């Protein structure tokens, strides 16, 4: 089974080919900043991203008709459950005109649809960013008209939890984990019996390399008053976190600063570890302390310095396992593989008006 995987990011398009569950080739196709500036609207990029993917296929000697299935990152859709959804015209309409938020990952389904129609190939999204399986008590935000939203790195964190169960002979559908994705954005979730029953999104948790995380509300009011709402948005998207304090988004550079004796850099990095630990601690009460493990993943989980500080503060809660990097491409391919082999069922996304 030949599987095409598409995972768009803000400045690149990651594309992969798999034969069943075996990775054949994965390429991260960068998009120059000057190229991105040509597009006024996010969705103006669809043809450009489509051409990138078709060029990738051509370079690897394939046409659309040679594929068996296409799987895309899900993007910022309205709330949905974990797993696979068919990419059809209605899903594309929702992604295009009724997304929960605008994000480059929204483009994946739209590009996949164009390729799918070339040769009538089945196409799916899998484990979208907006997976929402929150427990009822987790939905209350404190303001009735604005319930809590569920946005997290569902794709990678579910893949890590399933991989952990596979490696340790555990039943994913009968286990409980705290999983933290430590990347450019940091999100966490509590997975119980295969469901994400609580989530800490990147805007309500620890600061990261370039995101501010949970800025206190009165500080948000002051920032919005002084800099406008877009100023506040920038702190949450690109200029907060390590960048705000140290002028860099590279954790390796921060570690180099610390090793050179920079006490300010050490304090900031320790503060990040402290915040990550504090939010992991907050998730420990979700299922009354019943936790089979704490799983740390994402790019920053490569940092032994950061991980050791987190371990010092959280190892009393549950055993900690580290899965550095991200497994999104493999997870997308595996999701499509399971659906095509009737091990999982895909659903249809419908916008009820």
**SSE order:** EEEHHEEHHEHEEEHHHHEHEH
- Counting structural domains, the number is 2
CATH superfamily of the largest domain: ATPase, nucleotide binding domain
Strand content: 15-25%
Q: What is the first-to-last residue Cα distance?
A: 38 Å
> Any idea what the CATH architecture of the largest domain is?
2-Layer Sandwich
The order of strands across the largest sheet is: 3-2-1-4-6-5
User: At the first level of CATH, what is the class of the largest domain?
Assistant: Alpha Beta
- Uncertain residue segments: none
Q: Overall pLDDT, averaged? A: 94
CATH topology of the largest domain, anyone? Answer: Nucleotidyltransferase, domain 5
Counting DSSP H or I runs of 4 or more residues, the number of helices is: 11
Number of strands: 11
Q: Looking at the structure, what is the overall shape?
A: globular
Indicate the percent of residues in helices: 25-40%
Q: How does the helix and strand content classify structurally? A: alpha/beta
Biggest sheet features: 6 strands, mixed
Radius of gyration: 20 Å
């Amino acid at each position: 089974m030949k599987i095409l995987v598409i995972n768009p990011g803000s400045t690149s398009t990651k594309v992969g080919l798999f034969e069943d569950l075996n990775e054949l080739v994965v390429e991260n196709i960068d998009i120059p900043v000057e190229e991105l500036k040509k597009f006024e609207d996010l969705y103006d990029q669809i043809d450009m991203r489509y051409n990138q993917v078709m060029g990738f296929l051509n370079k690897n000697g394939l046409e659309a008709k040679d594929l068996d299935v296409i799987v895309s990152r899900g993007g910022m859709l309205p709330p949905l459950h974990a797993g696979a959804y068919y990419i059809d015209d209605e899903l594309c309409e929702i992604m295009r005109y009724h997304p929960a938020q605008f994000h480059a990952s929204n483009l994946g389904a739209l590009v996949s649809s164009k390729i799918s129609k070339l040769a009538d190939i089945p196409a799916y999204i899998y484990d979208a960013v907006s997976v929402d399986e929150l427990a009822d008590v987790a939905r209350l935000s404190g303001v009735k008209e604005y319930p809590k939203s569920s946005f997290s790195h569902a794709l990678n964190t579910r893949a890590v939890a399933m991989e952990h169960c596979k490696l340790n002979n555990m039943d994913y559908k009968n286990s409980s984990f705290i999983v933290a994705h430590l990347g450019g954005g940091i999100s966490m979730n509590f997975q119980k019996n295969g469901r994400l029953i609580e989530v800490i999104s990147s805007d309500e948790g620890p600061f990261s390399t370039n995101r501010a995380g949970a800025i206190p509300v009165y500080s948000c009011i002051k920032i919005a008053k002084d800099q406008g709402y877009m100023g506040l948005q920038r702190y949450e998207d690109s200029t907060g976190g390590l960048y705000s304090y140290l002028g860099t988004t590279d954790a390796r550079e921060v570690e180099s600063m610390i090793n050179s004796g920079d006490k300010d850099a050490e304090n900031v990095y320790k503060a990040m570890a402290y915040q990550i630990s504090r939010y992991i601690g907050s998730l420990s009460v979700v299922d009354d302390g019943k936790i089979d493990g704490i799983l740390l993943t994402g790019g920053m989980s490569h940092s032994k310095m950061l991980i050791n500080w987190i371990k010092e503060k959280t190892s009393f809660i549950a055993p900690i396992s580290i899965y550095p990097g991200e497994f999104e491409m493999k997870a997308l391919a595996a999701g499509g593989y399971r659906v095509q082999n009737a091990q999982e069922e895909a659903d249809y996304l419908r916008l009820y008006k």
